[in-house]
Design goal:
Layout: E1 7-8, E2 11-12, H1 21-32, H2 36-45, H3 47-54, H4 64-81, H5 90-108, H6 116-136, H7 142-149, H8 153-162, E3 172-176, E4 179-182, H9 195-198, H10 201-208, H11 212-223, H12 228-235, H13 239-257
Antiparallel strand pairs: 1-2, 3-4
Helix pairs in contact: 1-2, 3-4, 3-5, 4-5, 6-7, 6-8, 7-8, 10-13, 11-13, 12-13
Amino acid sequence: MPSNKVEICGVDTSTLPVIKNERMRELFPRVHAGDTEARAEFIRGNLRLVLSVIQRFNNRGESVDDLFQVGCIGLMKAIDHFDLSQNVRFSTYAVPMIIGEIRRYLRDNNPIRVSRSLRDTAYRALRTREELTVRAGKEPKVSEIAQAMELPEGEVAAALEAVQDPVSLFDPVYQDGGDAIYVMDQLRDERVNEEDWVRDLSIQQALNRLAERERSIINRRFFQGRTQMEVAAEIGISQAQVSRLEKSALQQMRRYMQ
């Protein structure tokens, strides 16, 4: 997929506007009330978000036009399901929805054969995952999906794994202001525990030198094993901001410990 393509699906991407968060919050009530002009403005103002997402699939040999159209479907689904009362930026909510729509498209066009029953279970699990995500505002665990489907957890996990494309931990998911958010930034490490950190007094001293918000982010990310998306939702900022603050805090700690 050419990454420097300017015209996609007849749209000159170089002229696409960037809509600010404040404007999106103004438009949302009109969009949900059925205002077609507001919806069109909202969609066009977020097409750059779709472009940033499809870049991570540029090594699949897929048509950029097809991926862009599928990504737009994910964008519109995100618009329909986004809850403005949640203290989360729209882009933070929309990116996983767009990625999910593209992955479904790639699975449907995957030459690797998966049994019909396993694929049906996987698609049911994916629908259930989306419903639980919308309901709870966060990604559910496999055990929660299995419970909602009334199926064994192992069966649901195997079905989801069978239809997942392998990805690198260093694949970029979204880029905002030059700082990329990678797959590894969205993963929870269940092995992390507080004792492994506070055992080293110098690390604790470095933590104490951080500002309160940066210290809170480091605590949530590395002591409690939260994902960046979870931290963003908890403290009311975007995932991109969490990523920048986390990197800055870690750099400060390294300088202190050197």
